[in-house]
Design a protein that fits this description.
This protein is of the alpha/beta class and about 200 residues long. The chain contains six helices and eight strands. The protein has a single domain, classed as P-loop containing nucleotide triphosphate hydrolases (Rossmann fold). Strands 3-4-2-5-1-6-7-8 form an eight-stranded mixed sheet, sandwiched between helices. Strand 7, helix 5 (about 170-175) and strand 8 form a beta-alpha-beta unit. The longest helix is centred in the C-terminal third of the chain and has 14 residues, at about 190-204. It starts with a strand and ends with a helix. The relative contact order is 0.23.
Length: about 200
Amino acid sequence: MLVVVGGHSRNIGKTGLAAGLIRRTRGMKWTALKITQYGNAVCSRHTVESTCGCEPGNGEEFALDEEFEANDTDSGRFLGAGAERSFWLRVPAGELPRAAGLVRKILAQGENVIVESNSVVELVQPDVFLMILDFSCEDFKPSSLRFMDRADGFVVIDRGINAPLWAEVAQGMWDGKPQFLVTPPRYATTEIVDFVKSKAAERA
């Protein structure tokens, strides 16, 4: 089974949701993958004046690291939540298709894989694609808008408002699909877990 967790902006809770799903479905023995696209105006810590530290060394464009210890990094959090294996793939912004071979190699590592990324859905067809929405956050990543119609359900952060601050996204893109209201830091609610399990049952 392949589960993809995306979100319309940075630092919106994608890792929290993925880790929560892993923790509450440990029996599925997840392989976890976080994909980071680095470059100016893509990573929140990468600017004209400074880099974010995501770039691979030795002149390489792509880097794939496996995490072996539970720690405070995102890939380490996946292990701490109960993932069997956890990987971090870094690629230049807009170049994920060129790393398709690496992505498929990771997906072949386990029967159940959870990926934190929006853009990965241009390479693979997930069994479940959940996208996090925060109506109080005005930023809307182009990759999120591009793949929004592919989402199976939306995880909506409860901010006490009913209408989003972003106006350029048609309401019909999310209104007709399942929505799950969550309050951070509790992202993986029973309703979301049941939704993922139901998709797993359909696949079986």
